[in-house]
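Board notes (copied after class):
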Amino acid sequence: MRIGYGIDFHQLVEGRDLWIGGVQIPHHKGALGHSDADVLLHAICDALLGAACLGDIGVHFPDTSAEFKNIDSKILLARTKQLIAAEGYTIVNIDASLCLEAPKIKPFIPQMQLTIAQILSIDIRDISIKATTTEKMGFVGREEGLVAHAVCLLSQ
């Protein structure tokens, strides 16, 4: 059994779509990044890669590569699954937390869980997604950015 932890941050800006957990969320701001900037999927990728001692998302999908420009992060998650499977690991569960002031994402969590479960070929009940605010403090509270944390358990 191996535990992995991932964290990701992205700025929120006008003129970008907001993708969280593989789901497009209606909002007047979106996350800025080289890919679609899906903060939750990036944190999950880092947790999975870290648990398997395979580095991080930047090692495998560098933001300096044109190949990954505007890429759908669901593709990155699927490739991450292939990387950890090649090492003989299977996913036991994922626990994630999102930190953003707005929009409220509770209505979208079931679709996020389903999307992630389908990509990773695991049961939807093995994916926990929670959300919180920073009570208007810091860059998250000012709605300048968002953060995701993820923890995973792998077995071999």
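Comment from the instructor: DSSP finds five helices and seven strands in the chain. The longest helix spans residues 73-86.
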